[in-house]
Write a structure and sequence with these properties.
There is one protein chain. The chain is α/β, with parallel strands linked by helices. It has a single domain (3-266), classed as Metallo-dependent phosphatases (Purple Acid Phosphatase, chain A, domain 2), CATH 3.60.21. The chain is 29% helix and 18% strand. Helix 2 crosses helix 5 (95-103). It is globular. 43% of the residues are buried.
């Protein structure tokens, strides 16, 4: 029995299936952790979602920003963007079943000595605190008022965490941190404008995992989201970044948690950089 974490799939179903064959994944024996962004921009998001739904007993996934975008668009909030590939899901006969299941997935997960989130965590959050905040968002998404919540999900503010934040401001910041964050200002404010290579980031910004005194740094944290970062198994920061840009012609990566062995499948590009 093994547990494998796999980076952002984004609708690249054929690559996903090929990687599972390469690692000899067996649903009767193994467990799978997925870093979120199951869907969008790749060619077959519907098949990815159907496979994960069918194998939900052995799969743990967290929500990514593209997954939340799908949920919002499905309820009439936001809009389909030119490079979105979500219509197959929205028009599928089992689309509502799949969306209702996706809506019930958490933002953060912890177990087996690891934690997992799509993008990252603020330095002032412990893993216990992150799980509590994830549960607050999950309660909204699974509750009777999930549509009003999704209608107010989009936005870049607030940018600084305070324990006194409440309502949609609090929840939106939690969502933005866990599903969209890459960089912080030197004094800890969330910056969502930069999306490129870390080496090219402006000097007033730093990677969130380079922030000092991170309260969750004692737990290895598996992340996706930042494909420009590439594979980064940073033992000093205790961050395991495994989104290696399958969608962009990079690779799809699996990390076996028991021994941290890496498996990678080269991928066909479905989107061009730049």
């Amino acid at each position: 029995m093994a547990t494998y974490a796999i980076g952002d799939i984004q609708g690249c179903y054929s690559a996903f299936m090929a990687l599972l064959r390469d690692i000899d994944f067996s649903p009767s024996r193994d467990q799978l952790w997925l870093t979120g962004d199951l869907v969008n921009r790749g060619p077959d998001s519907l098949s990815v979602l159907r496979w994960v739904f069918r194998h939900q007993d052995v799969v743990t996934t967290v929500l990514g920003n593209h997954d939340l975008h799908l949920l919002a668009v499905a309820e009439g909030y936001g809009r389909i963007l030119p490079d979105d590939t979500l219509l197959d899901i929205l028009n599928a006969p089992d689309g509502k079943l799949l969306l209702d299941w996706l809506r019930c997935q958490p933002l953060c997960h912890a177990g087996e000595g690891y934690a997992m989130v799509h993008a990252g965590l603020l330095p002032e959050w412990s893993i216990t605190r992150a799980l509590q905040l994830s549960a607050e968002v999950e309660a909204e998404l699974t509750g009777p008022r999930y549509r009003p919540f999704l209608s107010k999900l989009y936005g870049n503010k607030p940018t600084r965490w305070e324990d006194t934040l409440h309502g949609i401001a609090r929840l939106r910041l939690v969502v933005n941190v866990m599903t969209r964050m890459r960089l912080l200002t030197r004094d800890g404010e969330l910056d969502l404008s930069f999306k490129g290579e870390l080496a090219e980031a402006p000097p007033h910004l730093m990677a969130w995992f380079d922030a000092p005194a991170r309260r969750h740094a004692d737990t290895p944290l598996i992340i996706g989201h930042w494909s420009a970062l590439g594979l980064r198994l940073d033992s000093a920061a205790n961050v395991l970044a495994i989104d290696t840009g399958c969608l962009w012609g990079g690779s799809l990566t699996a990390l076996r948690l028991e021994d941290r062995q890496v498996f990678q499948l080269p991928c066909q590009a479905f989107r061009k950089l730049g």
